[in-house]
Design brief:
globular; mainly alpha
């Protein structure tokens, strides 16, 4: 009897290890897929905002199918607030993609990816303001490193021309807008499952991106569909899908560490494809900002205050 129990326990442990291994592979692969996004934005023969439109529009039918398989939108009954939160999230995401895609064409791919991922730092700062509390030691260090690292990156870009500095600032704006998207989506997720929430926000972002691309006079219809199809599948479906699958298996710190593969891979792609070389200031600022992204994901040890 004891041998049988031990055998079952070993099989369960072995299965858990295999599951964790696949989850880690999914986490790395998801980040790698997202890191390739800036390349496809540059390769697309449409405008940068139009590329964002196709990223959402081409992925939307698949997201709707996944949403229906996860229960659909029944959770919205009697909860109109959740619908408006998802729409707000989609609007923030559309503005994020517009700013980020324009910035990608103006600055280095490594800078674009680092600044685009600054949302977690911005959300940490917003959380501190809402909670009306001072940051913990790790949070304070993360914010200081992020501020100093961003200044170094901006200074390096400024030395390489005004256009590159504007590109950095647009990507930083994208990080702020993405934080608005995440805050809206977190509240909407209290009512809806993950795929329905993502499908609704994606649908809400399609029209604003199309209207903005038309207002800018961008080319909308691609002559070569390859880059925009690749962008939709790598960034909106494969990248986000794999990370959504892997998130429950790991701590925020592990997720934060693997997130750093994105700017590293983006820098490598930029160097190999566009000969984008990083200066000493770029490397120093990038390391500082990357360290801040990890630190802000450390679990807070601050104890909640108690009232009498």
């Amino acid at each position: 009897m004891g041998d049988a129990t031990d055998s079952v326990a070993k099989e369960n442990l072995s299965g858990a290890k295999v599951s964790l291994t696949w989850a880690f592979v999914a986490l790395i692969a998801g980040n790698a897929a997202l890191a390739s996004g800036p390349l496809f934005v540059r390769l697309a023969d449409v405008g940068p905002v139009a590329a964002g439109f196709w990223r959402l529009a081409l992925a939307l039918p698949f997201l709707m199918l996944l949403a229906m398989r996860q229960g659909g939108f029944a959770g919205l009954r009697g909860q109109p607030g959740a619908l408006w939160l998802a729409i707000a999230g989609g609007t923030f995401f559309a503005a994020d993609l517009a700013a980020w895609h324009i910035g990608i064409g103006m600055t280095k791919m490594a800078n674009a990816t680092l600044f685009g991922n600054a949302a977690s730092l911005i959300m940490a700062a917003v959380t501190l303001v809402i909670a009306r509390r001072l940051p913990s030691g790790a949070e304070a260090l993360a914010l200081l490193l992020a501020f100093a690292g961003a200044l170094l990156l901006l200074r390096s870009s400024g030395e390489q021309g005004e256009a590159r500095l504007i590109g950095d600032l647009l990507c930083l704006l994208a990080g702020v807008l993405y934080a608005g998207y995440m805050l809206s989506m977190q509240r909407a997720r209290g009512v809806l499952a993950s795929w329905p929430t993502l499908a609704l926000s994606t649908a809400a972002g399609v029209i604003p991106l199309l209207l903005f691309a038309l207002a800018l006079g961008e080319q909308i219809m691609p002559g070569n569909w390859g880059p925009v199809v690749a962008l939709a599948f790598t960034s909106q479906l494969i990248g986000q899908g794999l990370i959504i699958y892997a998130l429950p298996h790991f701590s925020a710190l592990v997720v934060g560490l693997t997130l750093l593969t994105q700017p590293a891979l983006a820098a490598m792609i930029g160097w190999l494809v566009y000969d984008e070389r990083l200066t000493a200031l770029d490397l120093t600022g990038g390391v500082m900002l990357a360290a801040a992204l990890v630190l802000v994901r450390l679990p807070s040890r601050a104890k909640p205050s108690t009232s009498a």
